[in-house]
Specification:
The chain folds into two domains: 58 residues, Antifreeze-like/N-acetylneuraminic acid synthase C-terminal domain (Type Iii Antifreeze Protein Isoform Hplc 12); 52 residues, SH3 type barrels (Roll). The radius of gyration is 22 Å and the shape is elongated. The strands form three sheets. A five-stranded mixed beta barrel has the order 5-6-7-8-9. A two-stranded antiparallel sheet has the order 1-2. Helices cover 3% and strands 35% of the residues. The N terminus is likely disordered. It is mostly beta strands.
Amino acid sequence: MIRAGMILLAVTGAAQADIVVPARNIPARSLIAPDDLILRAGDIPGALADPGAVAGMEARVALYANRPIRAGDIGPPAIVERNQTVTLVFDRGGLVITTEGRALDRAGPGDVVRVMNLASRTTVSARIDPDGSARVGG
């Protein structure tokens, strides 16, 4: 049943979206510049479509020219390097404890990384804050 004012459209082909691909090979740990990216027609599940969301990020893995970029392939630029000394912060219910720790991997803001507490030699998982400190606990 068709009501007055309703318009029916016939779609003859599948809709294609643009996906973001590197214009050149980009090594892991490199910052991605806007001119490193191009849009290509395609419909690949999981591929990123917004060049603005990719530019300024860091390649977590090697990115190859004309291959789709997926969300797990990129991340915020690392602000903590492996073996760097960081402030380890535990903050819960008004109690704040800080000590020195050693990052056991590279990480950007919001990444979870293993950190060794230098006082106790215990390894904990901590989320990196934008200031480069490592926060453990709730």
